[in-house]
Write a structure and sequence with these properties.
mainly alpha, 3 strands
């Protein structure tokens, strides 16, 4: 997800963090051991602790490591509470997962690094080394958002074309469907920036301002590479394309943008959220099971 800018009030004073020489040696060893996704995740957590131990603020560490302030707070708090053990993954609540994160990582990496017989690759899957952690982070915002948080799914839909049919569209009449020419004239492109609220479905879209009377904080959660399906705004973009753009006729960019604004206004009169239903465990379980199945297929 992309950045959303705003100001926030200073938080409460936090306890200082320090590390012993023995802890520092272990943390620095974890930083260097970056061979798998799980090791990369542990390396990042170790860097968070080491940077905090140098006296850097949460926001300084967030900017330095290009992660959210919430992530820094989480692992800082875990280390203060439990030391080195706090940086390791804990068993998650709910129905036990059929496979572990390590199992999922192993079969996903195997599928990405090997190719099937008589083919160049298996299928499109993110090669992000922190794929598992990022899926858990983003899905967690949908299923269990922070208290009183405004979760916005921000992205852009670029290169929207204003297309005018080469001949007038013939409307529907009884017994005859609508008819239109297959060729068209290009009248330019525009870009839409949009941010649906995950809880309500209301969409903030360019050039509309932020909701009046509400403080907007800067939040940054990185999706895994090649994983745009994790961003709920993509579902709204699909709705816009199907209902407004696909069959539309626009003789200018201005007419196209006017249509988009009208669609935004109409949607926000009666918004409804796209409910995320799959947990991170279910997503990773399905990906790992599929990778295991095709890797063992012998084809």
């Amino acid at each position: 997800m992309r950045r959303w800018f705003g100001r926030s009030r200073p938080g409460p004073k936090i306890p200082p963090l320090s590390v012993t020489d023995a802890q520092r040696a272990v943390l620095e060893g974890w930083v260097r051991r970056r061979t798998t996704a799980q090791a990369l995740a542990l390396a990042l957590r170790s860097r968070i602790v080491l940077e905090c131990a140098e006296g850097h603020s949460i926001m300084e560490v967030s900017r330095l490591l290009r992660i959210t302030a919430d992530t820094v707070r989480t692992w800082r708090r875990r280390f203060l509470g439990r030391g080195l053990d706090g940086l390791c993954d804990e068993p998650r609540p709910g129905v036990p997962w059929r496979i572990t994160d390590a199992d999922a990582e192993r079969v996903i990496v195997k599928t990405l690094q090997e190719t099937p017989k008589n083919a160049a690759h298996w299928f499109k899957l993110s090669t992000d080394p922190l794929f598992i952690d990022k899926v858990r982070d983003v899905v967690g915002r949908y299923l269990d958002p922070p208290e009183k948080a405004l979760v916005l799914c921000v992205d852009e839909k670029s290169q929207i074309q204003a297309l005018d049919r080469s001949e007038p569209v013939l409307p529907m009449v009884p017994g005859v469907p609508e008819r239109r020419s297959h060729d068209y004239v290009r009248a330019g492109t525009t870009t839409l920036f949009a941010a649906p609220e995950a809880a309500t479905g209301k969409v903030i879209g360019f050039p509309a301002p932020a909701p009046p009377g509400r403080r907007v904080h800067e939040v940054l959660h990185f999706r895994p590479t090649s994983s745009s399906w994790l961003n709920l705004v993509k579902r709204w973009f699909a709705e816009l394309t199907q209902k407004k753009l696909k069959q539309g006729v626009h003789r200018s960019v201005q007419a196209l943008e006017r249509d988009i604004r009208d669609r935004l206004a109409a949607w926000n009169e009666h918004p409804w959220p796209f409910a995320w239903t799959k947990t991170a465990d279910e997503i990773l379980d399905k990906a790992a099971s599929y990778c295991r199945r095709i890797s063992d297929s012998g084809h």
